[in-house]
Amino acid sequence: MDGTPDSNVGEADDSDHEASDRDPLVDDLLAGDQRALARVITKIENRSPGYRNLVAELHAHTGDAQVIGITGSPGAGKSTLVDKLAATYRERGETVGVVAVDPSSPYTGGAVLGDRIRMASNVGDMEVFFRSMSARGQLGGLSTATADAVKALDAFGKDRILIETVGAGQNEVDVVKTADTVAVLVQPGSGDDVQMLKAGILEIGDVFVVNKADMDGAERTVAELEEMLHMRESPTKGLDTGHHGFDVPDHPDDPEGNDGDAGDDGIDTNGDHQPWSPEVLKTVAKSGEGVDDLIATFDDHRDYLLESGELERKQRQRYAEEIRTLVRSDIGALANEEIDRLGGIEALAERVRTRETDPYTVADEVVAPIEECVISSRE
To answer: What angle in degrees, to the nearest 10, is found between the helix axes of 144-156 and 34-46?
Structure first.
């Protein structure tokens, strides 16, 4: 021994110190304890004291799972399809986490349908973790708690995480903020639902699925969706060319269309990736027909996201929106406290009604102390 201190000793000590400061639930979750995972998600959903520290500590361990959103109108068969997807992933040896976002109870805020049997094919499989969560009144059925639950499942080590949404029409666009890949389900003969897609949900789908394809009207629904996607991507071109059976829109930096030819891998000869063009697939979730093709398309989309750099862009966008949401929520809580200090919202509204003051002046009074604190912290 030459007495020279080991350069790694300090690092190990720091790591041990950080681990000792962590909530034991985090260590148990990272060690694969199913009960710890359930407890963490319960704390997240209930917004129990300390839940934010839990999520913050888990964040460094996330980023490996593929997160897939399954959305669409009620009755399209989302639950049955999620069940079959989970079973098929398990057959491939992959672990699965499922977050099913149910309507909120007007009395408790909990999930109205939380006790129903949703995963019949996977009962008893410890590698499929299923959680039914309340939408808590959030548009699109996704609350911040749902996004945090996905992080917990990701940190736990789940390979695939499936989010099944309530199915509230165009407000389902909220699913994009949490999922890497979004599948929109439509059932045959749902002409009104297909037309509704034009209002916004059409824009979020990476894959469109005509489920219950053994019913009459399936081919017509497929044709309607393909036509709508074609019009979305390139209203002036034909349907007979392009990636995944659709024309690819002109490159934004090359409106003349001289941006190279796309090969089979979706990459231009000049090295640029073509935008992803959504596929329209048919499934019969009850029997499992078409599920393998759907999973293959999910895999293709994952490869596209990784190879094109689109996954990194989506993640930056997602975290930017999450930061804004949390900041707005925290500042809103501070503002509510200040409103209470000034006599409460009803008293302030009455002062506005009687023309003693106006809404802008009240808002200035509420925000002023917060603004002063922010400015003073800069100095």
So the answer is: 160
